[in-house]
What we know:
- With 368 residues, this protein is α/β, with parallel strands linked by helices.
- It is 42% helix and 17% strand.
- It is globular, with a radius of gyration of 20 Å.
- The two termini are 25 Å apart.
- The mean pLDDT is 91.
Amino acid sequence: MSATTEHLWYIPNAVDFGHRGDTVSADHNSLETLTRHARALEENGWAGALIGTGWGRPDTFTLATALAVRTTRFQPLIAIRPGYWRPAHLAAAGATLDRLSDGRVRFNIVSGKDDLAAYGDSEGDQAHRYERTREFMRLIRRLWTKENVTFEGAYFRVTDSTAQPRIRVSGDRRHPPLYFGGASEAAERVAAVEADVQLFWGEPLDDIRQRIERLKALSRRLDRDLPPLEFGLRITTLVRDSSSEAWAAAEAKVAEMATGSGASWNDHRRGVAVGQQRLFDLQARGGVLDSALYTTPGKFGGGGAGTTWLVGSAEEVAQSLLKYRDLGITKFILSDTPYLREIERQGRTLLPLLHNGQRARSADRGAT
């Protein structure tokens, strides 16, 4: 799998309006509105977008399919959960959409808490949950890359199974890449052997460096038999024309959250996971870490990628992101609200700086 640097966005897949401070609109999740998001991403230089999942949200795969039909280059990163999907079902559905979209599909495998009973699923303890996820990812990849698959694991089994249509191999892309997140020891063991891309939330640079080193060592120790694990960052980026304008906007948003109107930011607080707790704990280390990582949002409702923000001018945020790139991060999933306006603003101001900065760094390394 290529280690090319890519920049994706986030599409709010939610029934309720105002997600994380987004524009309040009755048609916020209509096909027309979300298509405008996807087309704006194409027009402003983004590779695609993460589409979230969870019981109570519109079905993620269905939305991704609709947006793929209405675009030409947009790449949906489709969040899915083992248990909501069976491996063979996802392998066939994913292969079909990948073929119809000419290889634009990616999947983010989610093992966090959900309303499992609502769709007839159940899980045991953490070890059970991640072992099932590991088996799920292994079987999907096998169904995409082999024919007449017979597999009998602790959680899933198939007999003489060939998922159709077959995935078209393109260069070193043998199948849709599998993204995965999680900071617990059990989650990292899954990522080390089964994920194509390990996603991190917005932690300080030194913390990310340590996690990358640990995952690389774990991959070696567990005899990973796949191409090297890649790394991604999912974070909120608040960008304005100047540093002072950006920080004023960030503080105003946090003040609004503190009044209670930030309730729509709490979408990762169902049984706080290890990775989420790591973000909350950053507040004790300071309100701003490194040069631009704002931890205060987590006090007032921030969850997941909304817990910490990179704040500053386009130049300052670009420099922060390029430092993550220097650590080995190649997949970036950024966002801020209002989503549609920020797709355009950051596509116009931030992305060119990231592209130019990456080319300059690559040239420097080549000269060295």
